[in-house]
Amino acid sequence: MNHLTDIVSIATSGSGYQLAVKQDGTVWEWGKKSDSSTETQTPRQIPALTDVSQVSAMGSVNYALKRDGTVWAWTRNQETYEPGTPVRVQGLAKITSISVADNKVYALDSAGVLWIFSNKFEDNKLKLSPPARLAGIPAFKQISTASNGQMYGIDAAGTAWKCTLDMSSSVLKLSAKPSKIFPELKVKQIQAADGYAVLLTTRGDVWTYGKKPAGKEGKVNGLRGINSIAAGEYHSLAIDSTGQVWGWGGNKWYEVGVPQNKTDGMVYLPEKVRTPVTVKVNGNLLVSSFPAIMDKNLVSIPVKDIAKALDADLVVTSSAYGSTYCLKYKQVTVAFKSSQTEAEMNGRSITLPMPVYTENGATMIPASLLKEMGFDVKWDSTRSELNIQSR
Question: Where is the Copper amine oxidase-like N-terminal domain positioned along the sequence (predicted)?
Fold first, then answer.
């Protein structure tokens, strides 16, 4: 994606709008222009923001934490989609992190004090409530928030806590006393989602509090040397010390990053997320809902989307014995069937390095088949990028 390099912080509204902070402290936006719009915005800088360390995205209202510990808010015009002038959130200083949930902003300061405020619009103008200190909680060094007032934190000793805001009250308060989570653990990171939390210990182990995402609470087996974690609504991710990403939980939409091998769409134990493969066709990024797949040093690609990108003809014929695919480009025609390694190109038989197969509803072919057809196919191992050029 153009311009998006050297990123130190990234945030999403959850509905298609994103923000990112670069190492130089500039802020960039891209994605859906509004919740109701189908128009999209390519990455562009928000010029009025500098010296920023972190961002939180809500869409119509967004927040930035500057390196000096101040917090700033700005809106987006719902007609022109242009960003408004950032305003400083009064009453906050020495803030170390910010997060948003349930239309509330949570700001943690250097003393471990948590401040919460909300926003609303009056006469199309943004109104911020005065930040209020949340009483009755330990001094936290890190927090993570979820919906329905659920909040998790880590204190200076590495103990994890669960707190719940009283969402029915107009006064900022807890609905119950904070409770410790797995007090025997020394935790260095916690990430919350709806109904559960993922904990990372100083030893590099991962635990889950709550039975999401894989139906079991406690230590997550099969993970060691983990450096970072993330919690989605139905799946979780972890990065180990080698940079390998692991995923587990709900995998209906390939969100775990591995094949759908179970009928219930679940991945119950962490699996290595496949190496991401970028595909470019004649210099343009391949637009596809189905990712290219690297397996045993062989790259497979979705044949329908590749045919469309190459302006080739693809005819699929179904019978009681399965489907036959006929891919034609200029004077070259190749026919093949699913689950087979034999293909026929212009009347002669060729052997594919791997069978044609179906994954998540897409028919996948080895990229080397395009090379047999006369396309220039090159693999860039340093960028994990497959380049296909017409001849």
Answer: 280-386
